Amino acid sequence: MLRGLSRTSRDVPPFCIMDGTHTVRAVNLVGLRRAGLSTAAIRAVREAFKTLFQRPRILRLALAEVESGDVTAEVRELVEFIRASKRGVCFGPRDGGTEESLLE
Q1: Residue 55 and residue 73: Cα distance in Å, rounded?
Q2: Which of 23, 30, 41, 104 would be 37's cystine partner, CB 3.0–4.6 Å?
Q3: pLDDT per position as a tens digit, 25-78
Q4: CA dist., res. 57 & res. 102, Å (int)
């Protein structure tokens, strides 16, 4: 999902909300709940999101960290999407903004 006035030429990972230019800010919790995902599946997606996008790091290493844990079908979809991207994926906030700061 893209917020208003957002723009990107990169791939937006599934389950994410994009804001600004090439920046994923949060997990689309409303969409995940409407899709009928369990609380455990949503928690797994949020944890993977934090590992992948919350702080600047080498994406290859973050993907390996996510894959080293228990991987749900949704997390696998997220990882496979990122690995299959030809244009690159949007990155996490560089200004220290987090999902929680957007909810205030």
Answers
A1: 24
A2: 41
A3: 999 999 999 999 999 999 999 999 999 999 888 999 999 999 998 899 999 999
A4: 22
